[in-house]
């Protein structure tokens, strides 16, 4: 059973006001990703995907990601909305994080703008920043949303949310 949504304060968004099917939204927020003390991504040209009960997932253009640190990883997954996802491993010097980024090479038509863009799990990174604020990872090991102070839940991925 779905718990009651947390009412958003002024300046906040509730994930329960996000749509299903999800919506793709271009943003100008400053997005940075740091791994092994190196800024591996820095963008003001990202998109975010908003889906009911999920914090936003940020997709960054390949030109804003230091490609020398990104390697294709084995396996894929399927999203009913975006299509087949490919996974990527990050290596910066001697530190490796396997399958911590993903993207859609040929997404479905509603998500065509993010073809070749990558999203990153926040947990394995040193930091994922949205306008300088450190994002917290969405609960659970599958979902890749980023939680910032302007987003309220409860969030899919927390204990007891599998039936939502």
Protein structure class: mainly beta
Please write the CATH class name of the domain at 13-67 and 115-152.
Mainly Beta
The total count of strands amounts to 15
What general form does the structure show?
A: globular
Strand order of the largest sheet: 4-3-11-12
Strand content: 35-45%
- Looking at the overall shape, the CATH architecture of the domain at 13-67 and 115-152 is Beta Complex
What is the CATH third-level topology name of the domain at 13-67 and 115-152? Answer: Metal Binding Protein, Guanine Nucleotide Exchange Factor, Chain A
Topology pattern, helix = H, strand = E: EEEEEEEEEEEEEEE
Low-confidence stretches: none
Mean pLDDT over all positions: 96
The main sheet comes to: 4 strands, antiparallel
Radius of gyration based on Cα positions: 15 Å
User: Helix count?
Assistant: 0
Helix content: under 10%
> How far apart are the termini?
7 Å
Give the arrangement of secondary structure elements.
Elements: E1 13-14, E2 23-26, E3 31-35, E4 38-43, E5 47-51, E6 54-59, E7 70-79, E8 83-92, E9 95-103, E10 119-120, E11 127-130, E12 133-134, E13 136-137, E14 146-147, E15 151-152
Parallel strand pairs: 1-15
Antiparallel strand pairs: 2-5, 3-4, 3-11, 5-6, 7-8, 8-9, 9-10, 11-12, 13-14
């Amino acid at each position: 059973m779905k718990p009651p949504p947390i009412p958003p304060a002024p300046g906040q968004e509730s994930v329960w006001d996000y749509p299903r099917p999800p919506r793709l939204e271009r943003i100008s927020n400053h997005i940075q990703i740091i791994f092994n003390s190196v800024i591996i991504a820095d963008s003001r040209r990202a998109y975010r995907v908003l889906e009911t009960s999920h914090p936003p997932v940020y997709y960054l253009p390949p030109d804003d990601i230091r490609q020398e640190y990104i390697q294709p990883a084995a396996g894929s997954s399927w999203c009913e909305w975006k299509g087949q996802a490919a996974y990527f491993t990050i290596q910066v010097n001697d530190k490796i994080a396997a399958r911590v980024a993903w993207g859609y090479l040929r997404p479905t038509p509603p998500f065509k703008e993010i073809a070749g863009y990558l999203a990153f799990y926040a947990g394995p990174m040193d930091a994922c920043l949205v306008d300088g604020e450190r994002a917290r990872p969405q609960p659970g090991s599958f979902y890749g949303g980023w939680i910032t102070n302007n987003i309220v839940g409860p969030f899919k991925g927390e204990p007891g949310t599998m039936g939502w």
